[in-house]
Fold:
Amino acid sequence: MADNIVEAHGLRKVFGDTVAVDNVDLVVERGRVYGALGPNGSGKSTTVRMILGLAQPDAGEVRLFGERLTTDSPELLAKVGAVVEMPAFVPYLCGWDNLKLLSLYRPGPTEKDISRVLERVNLADAAKKRFKNYSLGMKQRLGIAAAILNDPELIVLDEPTNGLDPQGTREVRALIPELAAEGRTIVLCSHLLYEVEQVCDAVTIFQKGRVVSQGPVKDLIGTRSQLEVQVPDMAGAEAALRRSEWGAGVSRRNGSLVVEGAGDQGEALNRYLAAQGYYASVIRPIHHSLEDVFFELTGEPGHA
Amino acid sequence: MRDALRAEIFKTVNRRMTYILLGAIVALMTLFYIILWLRLREGPETGVQAQVRYLALREGMSFVNVVPYGLQLERFFLTLIAVIFTATMMGNEYDWRTVGVVMTRGVRRRDFMAAKLVTSAAFLLATLCLGFLVATAWSAWFSNLYGLPYGTFGAARFADLFTSLGRTWFVVMPFVLMALLFSTFWRSAGQAVGFALGFFFLEGIFTGLLDSAHGFLAHIPDALMNANVAAVMRANGVLSGDSQDRGPFVTSQGGVGIWQGVAVLLAYVAAFGLMAFWRFQRRDIQE
Structure:
């Protein structure tokens, strides 16, 4: 059993004169909830399409479950559940019939399974309503129901909370860790950084068709941890800190000293300052969000 | 392939368009027979030519001639309906973006296309039979009304009937595959219907124009679809009667033989089919 559910190496995709994806490497480990972030046109959706076999890379390769993906890899894709961009279903069929249709294309799920997944996404009451009459939120939930219908090992969700009301958003955010707890691997594309930070273990940040950063969310945020320090003699304390191991990352901001990379070293820093004769009135870590990291890496405003 | 076919049948059975198109063949055939009946009621105009035309029309509408006349009439409507059915069946998958959903579920692309082709061919056959039943009912009524011949019933006549139904089904199939190709190529139902029907009508016009030309130009229609369709359709119902009037939609009486017609139409079927499958297999699924 492959530990890497998705492996992409050197992916490149060109549309006319536009390089949509350029030399993207991606590894998604089994059981992880993986976030793909990036502004519009950054290449994340094209990358997802290549991972799902909907688009052929111009260079590079995709491996799913350890095997190379081609345009004819039904056995590999049978282990995947996906909602790409907006959920798409046959408009004249009801929700239940749309899932029935998918179960005909790929036999396995029973009628009981269809009822169960509709129940799980709170669509049981609207099961017999035509898809074209669904609200955006209901369409999203049906998309998620379809994605989990065939009990997939890998679930790819593209903007799954788009159009959902706050209650629906909360339900979907709760559902993702539940699905992960069942041993599934999840790839979540979202422009909601807070959402990704809440539910993802690891993240890849795309910009202009390239990966600008990837790794565990904690590491990405943690490497940018800072301490805010306030002392009566700011000038003296700053000079003392500059002579210390934290010297390279000391700066002043809004009347405080900010020490880069010292977010989890408050006690040691306090001891050092006291030894130098400076007694801090305030020492507190500055918490960064994924949004801050994203902004810093991409130069984009606060959403992807 | 079997799973994809079951899914396609499920969609077709639950699709309102299916019943609209089936209703359309009944309505169009009925409408046309009523118009012809109204013409018959007026009686012949003066002049020998007019008398001959009138008698040929009356004979064509008799029960004995329902195979050549009714099928020729139906073939025209059937082509329109089959093109709309196939082009929307494939094109809507792009318009609704459902093609991507199906492909990510591990369905082979060639199975998906083959299921659509088989469903289209089956729908074409069902529509053909329904339209022919309407023609048969009207012809029986006319024969009763005007005392026209019913002909004799025997194995040979039934064999001729089934062969003729098969020929009519066959001559529409190139248009079905053309609709499949166009919908795959343009990834849109509307454009596919437009281009396929545009081709159908324009080819008829060009064939008519080129028929009156000389030299090399006069032979171009022989390689197009219309003349070959007409060649195959002329073989219909030879045992039923010997009406010279094979219906109002014979656009070419050119010199193409039946086997040449079959060969040319088969070549179109193969070319359109291969191009559609190749295009769908190789192309990115963009929505």
Summary: Chain A touches chain B through 37 residues (CB under 8 Å). The CA atoms of residues 5 and 65 of chain A lie 5 Å apart. Chain A has a mean pLDDT of 84.
